[in-house]
Amino acid sequence: MKLKAALTSVALAGSIAAVSTPAMARDTINIVGSSTVYPFATVVAERFGRNTDFPTPKLESTGSGGGLKLFCEGVGTQHPDITNASRRMKPSEFELCQSNGVKEITEVRIGADGIVIANSKEAAKADFSLKQVFLALAKEVPDPNGGDKLVANPYQKWSDIDSSLPNKAISVMGPPPTSGTRDAFVEIAMQGGCKQYDFIKKMDKSDMKSVCHSMREDGAFIEAGENDNLIVQRLAQDSGTYGVFGYSFLMENSGQIQAATINGVEPTPEAISSEDYPVARSLWFYIKEAHVGVVPGIQEYVAEFTSESTWGDNGYLVDVGLIPSPRNERMEIAKRAKELQPMTGKEL
Amino acid sequence: MTDQRSQAEIVRNSLKRRYRKERRFRMYGMLAIFIALASLAILFADIITKGHTGFVKTTITLDVTLDSDMMYLDDPSDEDQLSMADFVAPLIAALQEHIPEADSAAEKRELGRLIGSYGASEVRNLLKDNPDLLNTTQTIEFLAHDRVSTYVKHADNPRYSVKLSEQQQRWVDELQEKGVIDTSFNDVLFSRGDSREPANAGILGAIVGSLLTMVVTLVIAFPVGIAAAVYLEEFAPQNKITDFIEVNINNLAAVPSIIFGLLGLAVFIGLFGMPRSVPVVGGMVLALMTLPTIIISGRAAIKSVPPSIREAAEGVGASKMQVVLHHVIPLAMPGMLTGSIIGMAQALGETAPLLLIGMVAFIVDVPGGFFDSATVLPVQIYLWASSSEQGFIELASAGIMVLLTFMITMNALAIWLRKRLERRW
Prior knowledge:
The structure holds 2 protein chains of 2 kinds.
Chain A: H1 2-20, E1 30-33, H2 38-51, E2 58-60, H3 64-71, E3 82-85, H4 91-99, E4 105-120, E5 127-128, H5 130-137, E6 140-142, E7 150-152, H6 158-161, E8 172-174, H7 180-194, H8 198-201, H9 205-212, E9 221-223, H10 228-237, E10 242-246, H11 247-252, E11 257-259, E12 261-262, H12 269-273, E13 280-288, H13 298-305, H14 308-311, H15 316-320, E14 323-324, H16 327-339
Parallel strand pairs in A: 1-2, 1-3, 5-12, 8-9, 8-10
Antiparallel strand pairs in A: 3-13, 4-10, 4-11, 4-13, 4-14, 6-7
Helix pairs in contact in A: 2-13, 5-7
Chain B: H1 2-51, E1 56-65, H2 68-71, H3 79-84, H4 89-98, H5 105-112, H6 118-129, E2 137-143, H7 146-154, H8 166-177, E3 181-185, H9 204-235, H10 240-252, H11 257-271, H12 279-303, H13 307-315, H14 320-348, H15 352-356, E4 361-362, H16 377-385, H17 391-421
Antiparallel strand pairs in B: 1-2, 1-3
Helix pairs in contact in B: 1-17, 4-5, 9-12, 9-14, 9-16, 11-12, 12-14, 13-14, 14-17, 16-17
């Protein structure tokens, strides 16, 4: 008798919980997305929580692609309010958002970040051209014996590519395909080097992409997960290995590692901002407007992020490694963010 | 006769070889134990050498004059004024009393950077709560900036790179001599949630998150596991269906934990629409993961209750239920508890399934309930280990020590319970 009553009450409680949770209000902002933006966004979130009466937003580092997927899943408090990305939203992702009812999205460009190719300070500093990077890391490269033909990557040592490069085995650690850093690296560095071959440039777009974007899989390029810190540790131990990651990580670990110059340009904040340094990309976040007013604090968080003391030339994000956008651009973006101007999909 | 002697001789001759063989065999065993112990010792030595400094904080104690003109603040109860006021200026002024040489604007800014960014908020909150303190001088202990802390603690350690300018290093040395900068036990670690500044990061949020998650796991897994074990062992008919269930439970114990995370994501979050990152969902997922362990150990414990006890109880007229409730379960309880505690300890160290349900996240506020966003101890360690700031290296190792303490306590409890309650026949 007692047991029966207990069982019924448990079942009842369970079903109430199951039915009532979808409508559950949430007072903490949920943010997902890029591991590159994560160090910046967490600092902003922490300050925001400390200096306002709103709870501190919760941040998950899911990678740009993973974050946009979660973001576009729908409207409702079980879905995130903001997603960070280290690349721009793709048209296909915008479509996905639209079809799941996430209609109004505000886009905010935070600033820039450079992608560096770095190695241990104990080894010699390197200089690469984008073409050399492509030849070292692509799955298929133009035949070294000449002709417009692609062959499986034959280069085992850097010096095989160019005699000016070190006589060491090619070994580069980089981020996995879910990472925005990988997307940007592939699109800017690999494609940049790849397009210097005329016959590849003349290919139709999808063929060209499949050639330029395929990383080699024979062990010379090592996928190291989203954990950039692990790459830094490996580089410090093994002076023959190079690592690919964001500029902010280089800055934090400048005691142990050094960046290679690309086309002779050192990755400095000025060079990245002015795009003299070839492998630079923009960082973004996206706001789900349907959640503004439902989850408290979203507009205030955006205001904190887009204030001059945060992302300005002397803002605290600069200390973490952000490379600010030019001032007039910042002002324009901040204004649009404040008004929550929705994207049309045409700008992508 | 000769035959026998030669056999004895053969045995005698081979004795040496056999002894050698035996000695060698024993050596292999000892070697195996040595390897296991050595790797454990290396692990502990590495964690402790890296992490012991995590339990030390660097503080800057200053006599701060809360001057209203310097802060542009007349009325600390006015929110607007509070948000426009400059709380860094009094800190710099207080530091300047010790370092009079820093008087240019750039030098002042450099000086102010010695204090962590929480310093200004601390002054703000102090004034907000006690408006009377305006225009008085207060002695306040601030946390030093991460870079200062790294310099003070690890100046000679080549693994750390010093990020202070030459000038700042000189100032820090001077302040240390004057006793303004000092180190003490890091109580922040046990009283706060996560932070992006190593000096302000604490593990309390993760400890509370782990406890909340474990409570949910225990409340679900223990009764269900015990009930399943008792039914399967005492009541279930011996047929193909029972066999099938048994095989499946044993298989379930070997399923990689990430699968349970996928299940949790699909069922609890996808189907039931429960929120991400909350201890309730984490606890339910981990309960599913620990269930097989509890069922299997529970069944083993029930099996070890001698049949004579059952038969004696039945002999004096007890019903099946009375036999189970009055005799079998009490006698099997120590074994069941041991199994449950070991299962819980396993769940405490799990991160993979929590990744998918969003408990791997940056959460500053200490969770207050089962539906608040939370992380758990191993996740906190992972997050710190993958942060780029140098101060997190020692914190991650300190976190590992805290987690290991919990684990060892739980396992010791299991051993103690077994010793204390177990009966042998």
